[in-house]
Specification:
Blueprint lengths: L8 E4 L3 H12 L4 E5 L12 E3 L1 H8 L3 H7 L8 E4 L2 E4 L10 E3 L2 H14 L3 E4 L2 E8 L2 E8 L2 E7 L1 E4 L6 H5 L6 E14 L4 E3 L5 E3 L3 E3 L2 E5 L2 E6 L5 E9 L12 H12 L8 E13 L4 E2 L2 E3 L5 E2 L6 H21 L8 H26 L3 H16 L1 H12 L23 E4 L2 E4 H4 L6 E4 L4 H7 L7 E4 L1 E2 L6 E4 L5 E5 L5 H16 L14
Parallel strand pairs: 1-2, 1-11, 2-7, 11-21, 25-26
Antiparallel strand pairs: 3-6, 4-5, 8-9, 9-10, 12-18, 12-19, 13-14, 14-15, 16-17, 17-18, 19-22, 20-21, 23-24, 23-27, 25-28, 28-29
Helix pairs in contact: 1-4, 1-7, 2-7, 7-8, 9-10, 12-13
Length: 522
């Protein structure tokens, strides 16, 4: 069986990162094939939902409602784990961290439907067993249901997890450490012998009162929580000296044994709705690109605390998708694709910073460690600024990319969803980002700046719009919704026009060969 030029981009791995990348590529018209070695979606829910900045981007793409509609708890109470503690954001009017509960198998099923609707090809049961790079292309050697074949594309992206074969075959180093803890997480129905108390704790027959939240023991860490009266969530963390096969699912008996070792007691469990086991590590790939092979998601980084990896991987995909599309379309400026490593490796390091701090917080079992956690929680909950800062770290919303040529405080940040007005009626930044295209927003009637942006017409959408209290005279927004450049209010044309021209060239290539007259859509 022989195939050649099957796509512009081959994505290896049909998890959330790979599917997000396929969706972004298809928005830009890129021929995309997704290969996954498993014949069907893994039934084990490795992640229980989405949270943080990725929710904003999914809303901008018009996808968030699809996931919220399938969620049993679209917006759970904003109370999230951090270093063996629970950080409560409910006192804040606008919490910096939010989540949507959706088990990973359902998320992948919905995302798979979406990418197929967009025109991507999804092949399950197709394992990449080798690859080679030539000038202008990369070839994957694939073992599929009908035998081994070759598939060629301009680029290949490994989204195939922490143990990425693509990363290994591309010769990309993955420095870091593996944590000794084995984490086990389960959701079950509420056992008949367990009663959820009004204060959030539990009365357990034969045990007594079981405190909600995290409990440090000599055997490790135990936690229990519920989202509702019929839900019972259990977590254990303990040091083990042997590895587990990720393809072998955890059983209730395995979880019971871990509870017994960590808590020192037997606990009743209901019918399981989620059973998962995982280990943590602290790693960041030495480079996210090796020629025409790139890595994203867990193939690029591993974090030693939960709740952040899935969103970080999907944000990798959003950053990479439009840059690959620009390369394939032929208008990418020199070095554009290399900014994927620059920006997302930095984001990975930032996420490693706070997840490693979490690991240090949760590990100690002595009185001094308990005092450190108590003091940390006191400082965070007593100071709104500190609480918001921690929330931004967890959400990944503190990430700002370099934006040369612009000193505006919004430059490099994720674009806020401004309410906007046009002659045709109201709109918003979210609506303008639905198509995943670059957008230049004139918010102050700056004909001088529109004239500059018009030279990129056809590649960059230009709009003159009205906003109440606009944060800038103009914004240049990348397809991943990060602000590439912003004009200070009242900034003179002598500095604003050349700075805008430089930003347009840096991110979106040379001006169109035949620039149209300066015009705009109102």
């Amino acid at each position: 069986m022989t195939e050649t030029d099957v796509a512009d981009v081959i994505v290896v791995g049909a998890g959330p990162t790979g599917l997000m990348l396929a969706g972004e590529l298809r928005l830009a018209g890129v021929r995309t094939v997704v290969l996954d070695r498993l014949p069907q979606i893994r039934p084990v829910a490795r992640a229980g939902g989405l949270g943080g900045r990725i929710l904003d981007l999914l809303r901008y793409r018009g996808l968030l409602e699809r996931f919220e509609a399938a969620s049993p708890r679209p917006r759970p109470t904003p109370r999230f784990p951090f270093g063996g503690l629970h950080i409560d954001f409910t006192p804040l009017e606008q919490p910096p961290m939010a989540a949507v509960s959706l088990p990973q198998p359902q998320l992948e099923e919905l995302f798979g439907e979406y990418v197929r609707e967009q025109g991507a090809e999804l092949r399950r049961g197709h394992e990449v067993v080798g690859l080679s790079q030539e000038e202008g292309s990369v070839t994957a050697h694939v073992r599929g249901p009908q035998g081994v074949y070759q598939a060629s594309a301009q680029y290949l992206v490994g989204c195939d997890g922490v143990h990425s074969r693509i990363r290994e075959m591309a010769g990309i180093a993955f420095p870091g450490v593996t944590c000794p803890e084995v984490e086990r997480l389960a959701s079950t129905t509420m056992p008949s012998s367990v009663t959820l108390r009004a204060d959030g704790d539990y009365d357990v027959e034969g045990y007594g009162r079981l405190r909600s939240g995290y409990t440090q023991t000599e055997g490790g860490v135990f936690a229990v929580a519920s989202y509702g009266p019929g839900d019972f969530g259990v977590y254990t963390s303990e040091n083990e000296d042997h590895e587990h096969d990720d393809d072998v699912p955890m059983t209730l008996d395995e979880l019971r044994g871990s509870i017994r070792r960590v808590l020192g007691a037997e606990l009743p469990l209901g019918e399981p709705t989620r059973l998962t086991r995982f280990t943590f590590g602290a790693r960041n790939a030495e480079r996210y690109r090796a020629g025409r092979v790139l890595v994203a998601g867990d193939a690029a980084h591993q974090f030693p605390s939960g709740g952040v990896a899935l969103g970080a991987g999907m944000l990798d995909a959003a950053n990479l998708g439009w840059k690959l599309a620009a390369e394939i379309a032929g208008w990418a400026p020199d070095g554009l694709l290399d900014t994927y490593h620059d920006e997302r490796h930095f984001a990975g390091e930032r996420t490693l910073l706070h997840t490693q701090a979490q690991a240090a917080l949760r590990r100690g079992h002595d009185p001094a460690s308990a005092a450190l956690r108590e003091l940390f929680l006191e400082l965070v909950t007593a100071d709104e600024a500190a609480l918001r800062r921690i929330g931004s770290l967890i959400a990944g919303s503190d990430i700002r990319y370099p934006a040369p040529g612009s000193r505006h405080p919004l430059a490099g940040a994720f674009a806020p969803d401004l309410a906007l007005r046009a002659d045709s009626g109201p709109t918003s930044v979210a609506e303008l980002m639905r198509a995943g295209r670059p957008v230049f927003l004139d918010l102050a009637g700056r004909a001088d700046l529109r004239e500059v942006a018009a030279q990129w017409q056809g590649r960059v959408e230009t709009r003159e719009l009205v906003a109440d209290g606009p944060p800038a005279d103009a914004l240049l927004i990348r397809p991943d919704a990060h602000i590439a450049w912003a004009a200070e209010p009242g900034e003179p044309a002598e500095t604003a026009a050349p700075a805008l021209r430089g930003a347009l060239a840096r991110w979106f290539g040379s001006p169109s060969a035949t620039a149209p007259p300066a015009g705009l859509e109102r």
